[in-house]
Design goal:
Blueprint lengths: L4 H16 L3 E7 L9 E7 L2 H17 L6 E3 L6 E5 L3 E7 H7 L1 H4 L5 E2 L6
Parallel strand pairs: 2-5
Antiparallel strand pairs: 1-2, 1-6, 3-4, 4-5
Helix pairs in contact: 1-2
Length: about 120
């Protein structure tokens, strides 16, 4: 299986929103073959708590304006790790330190990487 066109469009929109808030180290993984709950994990980093919250809010606002509402969201106020479930896409916005500690990319290393636009 591969990620749906809808999931890829949501991923790109979320990545663009994150880039607008200077998110770093963006990685999208196609988890559709390993996980029935989502097609793509988008993982982005922020260097401090305020930036993590700002990135998460920008992503949520951008996708909501396009008609995609988060089904669930966790950690939006904490500023360390915000998780937003957009059904086809799960977005992880993580503080640099937490991202290095949890290494989600290592946990999902068997999943193919989804190409993000070069202009981000």
């Amino acid at each position: 299986m591969t990620a749906s066109a809808r999931a890829l469009a949501i991923t790109e929109a979320a990545a663009r929103a994150a880039a607008g808030i200077k998110a770093e180290n963006m990685v999208a993984l196609d988890v559709s073959a390993q996980m029935p709950l989502a097609d793509v994990f988008l993982i982005v980093s922020g260097s401090n708590e305020r930036q993590v919250v700002a990135i998460a809010e920008a992503i949520e606002d951008t996708l909501l304006a396009q008609g995609t509402k988060a089904l669930r969201r966790e950690g939006m106020r904490g500023g360390r790790w915000a998780l937003m479930d957009f059904n086809d896409v799960m977005v992880h916005v993580m503080h640099d330190e937490d991202r290095a500690y949890y290494e989600l990319e290592r946990l999902w290393k068997d999943c193919p990487v989804v190409s993000l636009p070069k202009d981000l």
